[in-house]
Amino acid sequence: MKISAMKIKKTLIYLFLAVFTFIQIFPFYWLVTFSFKSNTEIFDSNNLVGLPKVWHLENFSKALMGGEILRYLLNSVFYAAVTVVVSTLLASMVAYAINRMYWKAKGIVAAIFSLGIMIPVQATLLPLFQGLDRLGIRGGYLGLMLPYITFAMPMTVMILGGFFKALPREIEEAACIDGCNIFNMFFKIILPMIRPGIATSCIFAFLNTWNELLFANTFVDDAKYKTLPVGIMSFVGEHSTNWGIIGAGMVIATLPTVLIYLLLSKQVQESFTVGAVKG
Amino acid sequence: MKKLLSNKWYVTVFVAPGLILFLVMAVIPLFTTGYYGLFNYDGIGQKVFIGLKNYKELFTTDPYFKRAVLNSFILAAGSLFIQIPIALFLAIVLANRVKGEGFYRTVFFLPVVISSMVIGQLWCKIFNSEGLLNAILGALGMANDTAWLVNPKTAYMTTVIPAIWQSIGYHMVILYAGVKNISPEYYEAAKLDGATGFKAATKITIPLLMPTIKVCATFALVGSLRVFDLVYVMTGGGPNHVSEVPATLMYDNLFVKCRYGYGSAQAFFIVFECLLFSFLLNLIFKKSEENASMI
User: Which of B194, B249, B271, B268 is nearest to B69 (CA)?
Assistant: First the structure.
């Protein structure tokens, strides 16, 4: 009797997991199928959710050729790569100073950066817009990268802070005896030791930059400098009635993140939790 | 070594570049927004100091603001009372050695890594009058041609659904890590007292998880109050402003109507609201955390 009750409970749990898996996956499945369909087939009530009868690969070639999706894709790669590298460099130095060096104002600096995690970015939008305009860099690569680097820093400071704190003091002492200067010590000994932390914070910064919409949509006017999310928005506008091509564009836009995620799913999930669970 | 690590010059070199960038690009703009909020300012003419009049307008004569705030509260309630409980349930189930646990986690988390732009556009297609939802309803014999996002009655609710759907995996992963952090000793002790399964979850897991639940609740709440992307993509605040949230109204005031002062007041309201509610949440959770420390 007891065993069968357990069995029922187990079955219910697996049933729930199956239903939930379906709910999470199905919209994406549907997106992929309609990206290969023609409009007539998308709206054909007999084959709504089935695989395409004819695979319209030309949706993808049209999306790549006609629009500027490829350009947006490369732009997004560029923005994200520079943001990740520069913000990690700057933030790792700040985090090291806060957690390992001896100075008075470190509490205040730590508080300023942790405030950065809570503050809604939209509250900086207008002054940033005006400031970048005045500097003459709004609308170009630099004008979007600087805000991205800035707003990637607080989380990196927080994530790396935990890793720096966990290092034993002996490492710096040993490095000192060998007559190491501080920059050599930091870049050649300390940073390599917290590699997992750096990987984690880089993934987080990459995804956030890659998916960012508000700044990209507000600061950039010229299609030449647009990012993928904004580009997709104008792309959808241009092809508003041709769902197949829209679907193809969205699949192209999503593929890089999904591939990275599937390859590194554990690290990606971790990058979203370290900041949250530590505190 | 201590001498090396307290050298003022080295500290400056390590801190200054990052700190200056952050002050210039984040902290100063934030305060500038607060300052603009006290002026009547259109970006071209003179700034005229009007004190708190912008805020007065927000709460009295603005025809859309109350609705927008209410909308963000609806999302916050949905996040706190639907999203987090589902995420909590999934986290506890998956942390208890379910077969294929890694697969489920990967799948449930997937929407988190996808851009809100794509998520929004996709759900636009689902809620389109010729979209997936109506097709499914039709197949079930409930033929329907509502354009869910255009109909004022359903527009906002159909925006809330993907917002909640997208982040369940996010909270699940955080809570999962929290559950895994609980020392197995607690469960062994509970087992001796005959508490397993559901009882163990309510008596041990959830109380000990309170600090993590608090983090999730804060993220969910603050995220809802400042929500922008999905609403902007799916309805843009329409039709006729019924699905506005404070951030979309702010955007409209700043970049469409050029009401810089008024829009800045709205932006600052969002900041204030986020700080206030995370403070209140902290107070609420303080008690349950005290209880947890007694276990």
Answer: B249
Instruction: Say what the ipTM of the complex is.
Output: 0.90
Token reading at B28: 């100063």
H or E element in which residue B39 lies: strand B39-40
Task: Using a pLDDT cut of 70, give the percent of chain A over it.
Answer: 96
Measured between beta carbons, the chain A residues lying within 8 angstroms of B102 are: 265-266
Kindly tell me if the per-residue pLDDT of A97 is higher than 70: yes
pLDDT digits (tens, 9 = 90+) for A166-211: 999 888 888 777 777 888 899 989 999 999 999 999 999 999 999 9
Considering only alpha carbons, which residue of chain B is nearest residue A103? B6
Contact A150 B7 (CB under 8 A): no
Residues 6+ apart with CB under 8 A from B99: none
Q: Which residue of A has its CA nearest to B34?
A: A123
Q: How far is B52 from chain A (nearest CA, A)?
A: 18
Mean pLDDT of A209-235: 92
Q: Copy the structure tokens of residue B83.
A: 């999203």
Q: Under a CB-based contact definition with an 8 Å cutoff, are residues A268 and A207 in contact? A: yes
Whole-angstrom Cα distance, residue B69 to residue B86?
25
CB contact under 8 A, B232 and A213: yes
* Chain B residues within 8 A of A109 when measuring between CB atoms: 15, 19
